[in-house]
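Reviewers of the previous submission asked for a worked example of the structure-prediction workflow described in the proposal, so we include one complete record here. The input consisted solely of the amino acid sequence. No template or homolog information was supplied to the procedure at any stage.
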Amino acid sequence: MTQVTNTVRFVLDGRIVEAQGARRTTTVLDYLREHLHRTGTKEGCAEGDCGACVVMVGELNAAGTGVDYVATNACIQLLPSLDGKSIKTVESLKKADGTLHPVQDEMVKCHGSQCGFCTPGIVMSLVNLVQTNTSPVRQEITDALSGNLCRCTGYAPIIDATAKACEKKSALKVDDSADLPLLKEIKRASTPTMSLDGEIIVQPVVRTRKGNEFVSPATLAEVADYLVKHPTTTLLAGSTEIGLQVNKQFARPDHIMYLGNVKELRQVAETDKVWRIGAAVSLTKVEELVAKAYPDFAEVLRRFGSPPIRSTATLAGNIANGSPIGDSMPCLLALGANLVLRRGEKTRNVLLENFYTGMKKSVLEAGEFIEAVELPKPVAGQVFRAHKVSKRFEQDISATCAAISYTLKGGKLFGVKLAYNGLSPFPARAPKLEAVLEGKSPADVTAADLDAVIASSFTARDGLRATWAYRALVARNLALEFIEEQKEVA
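From that input alone, the workflow returned the following C-alpha cells.
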C-alpha cells in the first residue's frame, strides 16, 4: 500500500503514477518537470504569485461519479499531498487526434500569447473555470485570471479567447472517464489503522531512514493523536506558507501532516446563530458561504491571493499563521469569531481577539491545533463593513485592512467592534477607537477625535507596504467611511 511503501500514487491522464523515493518536500512542479518531463508547466516565481505553474488537481466527488477539480499552483504544493488524487497539466488537454481544447485553439486564433511562458498556466486557469461555468461573464473571466501574470500580451485577447471558446460548450469538459476507476483504486483509506492494542497508528505516505515523515490522516482522531505524540509537527493545508519556506528557505520539517483528507475538517456545520467552519475548509468555500450575509467580507476574500491560492488556502491556516497583515482576521475579529482548539480528546473555546499574544505568537499549546472557526451569523439591524487597502487591487499584500460591526439605535452607534491589520504586531481590535464611536451619532465623530486615539493606541512604525503616516490616515478614513450614510434598520 502507498503508506508503507514510500510511494505517492496519483492519476495522470488515465494511468497511475507511482512516485517512489521522492523527498517529502518535493514540489509537484519539480516532479512534473524533472521526473515526468511535463515541461509545459513552468516555474516563474516559486511563490504562488505568477500562475505559470497552474495545474488542475482532482478528487472523486462525494458520489464517486465524477472528478472535482481545483486550479492549483504546482510550485508550492508538496508532492505527497497528491496521494490518492489526480492531476491535469497543459499536456493533458490535447486529444489523441491532435485536437486542441477550445481554450487553446482560441488563444491561438485570438493571438493571446507572445513569448508564451505564462500561457500554459493561463490556459489551465481558464480550463478549470469552464469545467463548472461554461458561460462566464467578463468579471468571472478576469477573476479566474487574477493569479496569472502576463508581461507582454495584454489581457484583452485572452479574455476574447475565453469568450469564444465558451461558444463550443460541448467540448469544454476535460475527458477524465479513464481516471475515474483509477481514482477509486488508489483512494486513501477513510478509517485509521489500529494496533493490536487498539491504538491509532498514523501510517506515513513518505518516511525517511531518520524517521522523518509526511502523514496524511483521514480522521480527526488521527490528527489529535499524532500531534500529541509529535507536537512539533508542521500542519499542512494550502501550503501557501510552507511552500514558500521550502522553496525560499530550503526548509525541511521533520514531521509534516497534511490535513486535506480529513473529512471532519472539510465540513461546514451551522446553527441558527453560527457557522462552524472546519479547519481545512478552503477560502473559496468561505467566500461562497459569506457572500450573501457579509458581502464586504466576501470582497476582501476575493482579493486574497488568487483563485489557485484560495482554492487550497484555509481560514484556519490564515489565522494560525498569525501574519500582522493577515486579511481575514480583521473581518473575523469585528464579527466576534470564536476558535475551537483541540489537544487530544479535549477542546476549548478561545475568542479570536484573545488568540494572539505577539507577532506570530498565540495561545496554542504544544500538540494543540485549530479544529474549527465559529463565525456568528448576522443579527437584525447589524451593519458590517470591511475594506482592504493595497497598491494593487489583486495579488497584493495589505497596507491595512479594516472591518467594523455595529448596530444603529436612535441614530447612534452601539455594539461597535472595529479591527485592523497592519497597525500592530498582530491583527487586533481597536478598543480605544471603539470607545470613541460607541453611543455616538456618526455626525458627532470627528477626524481629530480618531486621529488622537489612533496615535495613542498604536506604536508608530513604517513598513515595507506603507509608512505609518499613510496607515494612520487610512485607518482614520476607513472608520469614518464605515459609519457614514448608514440608515437605521427598524
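The chain has 16 helices and 22 strands. We consider this example representative of the routine output the project will generate in years two and three.
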